[in-house]
Every structure is written in C-alpha cells, then in structure tokens.
Specification:
Elements lengths: L2 H14 L9 E2 L5 E2 L3 H10 L8 H9 L2 H8 L4 E6 L1 H5 L13 H9 L2 E3 L4 H5 L3 E3 L5 E5 L2 E3 L7 E11 L2 E6 L7
Parallel strand pairs: 3-9
Antiparallel strand pairs: 1-2, 3-4, 5-6, 6-7, 7-8, 8-9
Helix pairs in contact: 1-2, 1-3
Length: 180
Amino acid sequence: MNRKSFVAAAAAVLVSFGLAAAPEAEANGKGKNKGPNLVEVAIAVNSEGQFAGSFDTLIAAVLAADESVLKRLEAKRQSTVFAPTDDAFAALGLTPANIGTLDQDALTQILLYHVVNGRRDSNDVLGSTQLRTLQGGFLRQDSGTLIDNSTDSFNANIIVTDVPASNGIIHAIDAVLLPF
C-alpha cells in the first residue's frame, strides 16, 4: 500500500470511530475540551504541511495496538505524547506494512511508554530529569534528549515541540524508545 492510500485508509478508520478533525485545538478553563484531540491532530499533521507523511507508522501502530491506546489518546484527560517519526520506526525495521506483525501486547507497551500523564509543554519537559510513562516505566531527560530503560539505552532527540491538542500536547522525536 502506498503512503497516500495508507493515510487515507487510516483517516477513514479513525473517522469511522467518530474522530473527524476540528479546525483548532484549545482547552477551556472548565475542564471541557474543545477542538481536535491528540489522534485528530496527529492525523492532520501527517496529512498536510511540512510533516505530511512523517507519522504513517505511528498511526498504523496505534491502530494495531490494544484499543486502550486509541481510547486514551481520544480521552478528555490531558496527556503528553512523544511521537516517533517514520524514520525512527524505520531504524528498527518497522513500517506501516509490518508494524501489525509485532506482538500486540509488546506494541501496546511500547506505545504507552511514549505517553506521559498531563499536558507538558517543552518547558515542563526540559525542566524534568525523569518522566513517568503510562507504561509504568520512566524516561530520563537531558537537554532535550530522552533516554529509555532498554539494555541498549536508545536516545531520542525532541525534534518538534508543543503541537497542541484539546487533550494534551505532542512532541515529535527521532527514535523509538523501548521500555524493555
């Protein structure tokens, strides 16, 4: 499947879940979210503009993982997502075509390792030395570089910061982080 048809298919699947993108992200002061959620923003960023086609594998991974990942990224609760690019996944030999062949539980754990509770902008992230992930592990942070807990300790540089969504914020990273 080529990149354009994959993005169209992913968008169709997400729209079928009721995730039509809204024009602007913003959270009001009463705890109710207005605007597109994290999933909708990721699709919009991947669909057009400077980063079009840069997150096909991540979108495929979210769709292949346990449905709890998608539900969390759609939920009103604020989350911070460290989003690996397609090049980051490719460094591990992963593409939209083969990401679904990974063990679903392992894929789910890897994706949850890229999500942190709360809305943490770049200043919050850079002001932290350690970030607890939804997977239960920790990411270490040093000058905009995230370091995982794997035996080989992969480092991921934060390459794009502060992409807002109604239910959180996205930072793009250049490597996939591994919790095990």
